[in-house]
């Protein structure tokens, strides 16, 4: 069942089970609620306040990052944290406590939220912030929408001097070199991420390209550049690719070409912010590349102490499985935030796109879960559709604390989803 | 030159999309509706997105006694009001045809309230010898059907009213445009079975504003509804009365 309110007050719901959905960009079942109510927030998307002097903005939770950017960028402000797509809602960014390429320096989205308005289960609206209703605030940051319906979000933006990014690629011949590039302060930058050639094996296992970037300052810009945003042509994948289009050979060939082409760009280069942060947004329906059966995204984090060993094991397992991952991305994460169910922790996160060919994929993913657990890591709920309830509890040690807040604010467990039932989140412990 | 426009019933999806289309041209707006909280939200959003002047005021279509005072408050804010968009409407439900209490509200909002408010607007623009009135009616007013004939009758009456007004104001140089939207993806139609060719409120809003630059008097939105309704109107009554519509 779907409802799509157009008036702010109608975010209040009396349903026995309800979950909010913004843009539905979660890869898993976080915003599904089988045979129960899903509240679409896409029409609750008004910008309410934006102070171009101090960079603070308040908007309704259904507003997307794509709608926010053209309003703030011309005034010299940028999102403090952005995920890899701008077609996500503010409410979704809060509920999943999303992170971006600057997590190692600036933390996750929740670190920059000044206040929230939440519709809670008794129908009232509660303001929470790092200083007001503090527990509810940190239970909602990363709380997957299970504490209530997020109505308004106030965030602190960051100042920028131009719309351009200065990007530097550095290639690494193996995982060890790649880790060094991500750790080394000399090669560090405001935004860092590494692409891994998931098909490489043996001595080349974990070879890839570390990509650093930062917002270009005025004095860094060549004189002939101006502040305007270049719009790029939108491409589109017109149909589902046949299942055989992406296979070990084609991905190996692509990866090898990409490694040598991008890794060869030794000198820093300028890029528009849109193509830097949102490369896939420029290709509409990119998911069709994976064919009709689609793909599974798997993202985990391994804490610093055991991260190299853990990531190495994960890549070995993947390489041995001969299941091609079209995309493998490694990113260093900074200190854990205060969100009780937030995903990021100090360490390294690995994200994999795995085409769904057969059920054998899930056996592989279970093996990856074991490796993650053995190394003290966790799986990202925003991208998950198949983790077990027990693994969830082992991975998220602050769940008991979160549950106390949840039971206080939503004793009947009305805010629930297909994900919360699968992971047995909420209700009795 | 930029306009200043009054939007009546400004919190509906079509109305707020129309307001956004005016704001995108740099026009100043006066938003009116019963919902004070949403008015404030929409007004703030339009100011921030388009940098235009936006006023807001409480307005109840059914409270016809208050309409003159309300219209004067709009003129106080916009002494050079250029035009009005009448966008409020009330669909009611299936009960509207069986229970006159519901039906009366449908008529009071869609027709009586509209006629009352339009009389004040028409007198004002007639004196000034300029201005425009855009009335959002409905394709439902083109032929009575068993599923929503009370709403259809009220909207049909509104269409006739606008037609007469256009005839009266022609000599004064005042534009009167009748908009007849088909299915639009709004709260009014959300989840209804049997919808087809559903248009987004944004596309309707842009076309409503664009109609000002054209000469059309009656605008079906999207355009193909003119032909769908033409066919529906051509069905002979002896056949039509047996149809399930």
What structural keywords apply?
heterodimer, A: 429 residues, 5-stranded antiparallel beta sheet, 12 helices, 20 strands, 26% helix, globular, B: 245 residues, alpha/beta, 8 helices
Low-confidence stretches of chain A: none
Average pLDDT number of chain A: 91
Terminal Cα span of chain A: 27 Å
State the total count of DSSP E strands of chain A.
20
Bin the helical content of chain B: 40-55%
Task: Write a brief structural summary.
With 429 residues, chain A is of the alpha+beta class. Chain A has helices at 65-72, 90-95, 103-106, 134-140, 175-183, 248-263, 273-277, 304-321, 360-374, 389-395, 399-409, 418-422, and strands at 2-3, 18-21, 37-40, 47-51, 56-60, 77-78, 113-119, 125-128, 149-156, 158-159, 164-172, 191-196, 208-215, 235-236, 269-272, 283-284, 295-303, 327-333, 347-355, 378-379.
Question: Could you walk me through the main structural features you see in this protein, from its secondary elements to its overall organization?
Answer:
The complex is a heterodimer of chains A (429) and B (245). With 429 residues, chain A is α+β, with helices and mostly antiparallel strands. Chain A folds into two domains: 190 residues, Uridine Diphospho-n-acetylenolpyruvylglucosamine Reductase, domain 3 (2-Layer Sandwich); 225 residues, Alpha-Beta Plaits, CATH 3.30.70.2520. Chain A is built from twelve helices and 20 strands. In chain A, the strands form five sheets. An eight-stranded antiparallel β-sheet of chain A has the order 15-11-13-12-18-19-17-20. Chain A is globular, with a radius of gyration of 21 Å. Chain A starts with a strand and ends in a 7-residue tail after the last helix. The mean pLDDT of chain A is 91. Chain B has 245 residues and is α/β, with parallel strands linked by helices. Chain B has a single domain, classed as NAD(P)-binding Rossmann-like Domain (Rossmann fold, 3-Layer(aba) Sandwich). Chain B is 46% helix and 15% strand. Chain B contains eight helices and seven strands; from the N terminus they run E-H-E-H-E-H-E-H-E-H-E-H-E-H-H. In chain B, strands 3-2-1-4-5-6-7 form a seven-stranded parallel β-sheet, sandwiched between helices. Classes of the chains: A alpha+beta (429), B alpha/beta (245).
């Amino acid at each position: 069942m779907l409802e799509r309110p157009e008036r702010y007050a109608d975010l209040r719901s009396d349903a026995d089970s309800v979950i909010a959905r913004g843009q539905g960009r979660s890869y898993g079942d976080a915003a599904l609620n089988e045979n129960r109510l899903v509240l679409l927030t896409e029409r609750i998307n008004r910008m309410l306040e934006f102070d171009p002097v101090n960079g603070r903005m308040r908007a309704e939770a259904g507003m997307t990052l794509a709608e926010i950017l053209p309003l703030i960028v011309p005034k010299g402000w940028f999102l403090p944290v952005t995920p890899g797509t701008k077609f996500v809602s503010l409410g979704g960014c809060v509920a999943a406590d999303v992170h971006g390429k600057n997590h190692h320096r600036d933390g996750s989205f929740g670190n920059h939220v000044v206040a929230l308005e939440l519709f809670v289960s008794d129908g009232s609206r509660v303001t929470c912030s790092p200083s007001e209703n503090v527990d509810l605030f940190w239970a909602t940051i990363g709380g997957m929408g299970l504490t209530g319906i997020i109505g308004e979000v106030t965030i602190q933006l960051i100042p920028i001097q131009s719309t351009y990014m200065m990007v530097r690629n550095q290639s690494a011949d193996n995982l060890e070199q790649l880790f060094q590039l991500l750790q080394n302060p000399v090669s560090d930058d405001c935004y860092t991420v590494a692409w891994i050639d998931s098909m490489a094996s043996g001595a080349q296992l974990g070879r890839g390209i570390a990509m650093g970037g930062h917002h270009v300052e005025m004095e860094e810009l060549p004189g002939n550049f101006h502040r305007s945003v270049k719009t790029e042509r939108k491409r589109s994948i017109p149909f589902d690719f046949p299942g055989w289009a992406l296979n070990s050979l084609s991905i190996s060939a692509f990866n090898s070409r990409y490694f040598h082409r991008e890794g060869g760009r030794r000198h820093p280069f300028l890029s528009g912010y849109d193509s830097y942060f949102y490369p896939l947004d420029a290709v509409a329906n990119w998911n069709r590349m994976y064919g009709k059966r689609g793909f599974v995204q798997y993202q985990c984090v391994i804490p610093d102490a055991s991260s190299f060993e853990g990531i190495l094991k994960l890549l070995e397992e993947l390489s041995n499985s001969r299941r091609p991952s079209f995309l493998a991305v490694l990113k260093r994460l900074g200190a854990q935030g205060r969100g009780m169910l937030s995903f990021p922790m100090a360490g390294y996160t690995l994200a994999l796109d795995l085409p769904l060919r057969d059920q054998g994929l899930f056996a592989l993913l279970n093996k990856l879960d074991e490796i993650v657990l053995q190394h003290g890591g966790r799986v990202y709920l925003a991208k998950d559709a198949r983790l077990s309830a027990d693994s969830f509890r082992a991975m998220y040690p602050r769940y008991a604390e979160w549950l106390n807040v949840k039971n206080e604010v939503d004793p009947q467990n009305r805010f629930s989803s297909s994900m919360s039932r699968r992971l047995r989140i909420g209700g009795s412990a | 030159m930029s306009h200043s426009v009054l939007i009546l019933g400004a919190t509906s999806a079509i109305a707020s999309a129309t307001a956004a289309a005016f704001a995108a041209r740099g026009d100043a707006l006066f938003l009116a509706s019963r919902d004070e909280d949403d008015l404030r939200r929409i007004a703030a959003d339009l100011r921030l997105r388009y940098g235009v002047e936006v006023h807001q005021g409480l307005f109840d279509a059914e409270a016809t006694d208050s309409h003159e005072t309300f219209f004067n408050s709009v003129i106080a804010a916009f002494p050079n009001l250029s035009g009005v968009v009448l966008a409020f409407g009330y669909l009611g439900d299936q009960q509207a045809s069986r229970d006159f209490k519901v039906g009366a509200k449908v008529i009071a909002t869609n027709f009586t309230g509209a006629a009352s408010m339009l009389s004040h607007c028409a007198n004002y623009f007639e004196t000034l010898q300029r201005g425009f009135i855009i009335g959002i009616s409905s394709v439902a007013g083109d032929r009575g059907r068993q599923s929503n004939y009370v709403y259809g009758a009220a909207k049909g009456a509104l269409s006739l009213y606008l037609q007469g007004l256009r005839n009266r104001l022609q000599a004064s140089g005042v534009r009167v445009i009748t908009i007849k939207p088909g299915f639009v993806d709004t709260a009014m139609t959300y989840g209804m079975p049997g919808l087809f060719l559903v248009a987004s409120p944004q596309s309707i809003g842009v076309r409503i504003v664009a109609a000002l630059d054209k000469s059309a008097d009656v605008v079906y939105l999207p355009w193909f509804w003119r032909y769908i309704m033409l066919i529906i109107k051509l069905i002979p009554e002896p056949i039509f009365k047996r149809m399930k519509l």
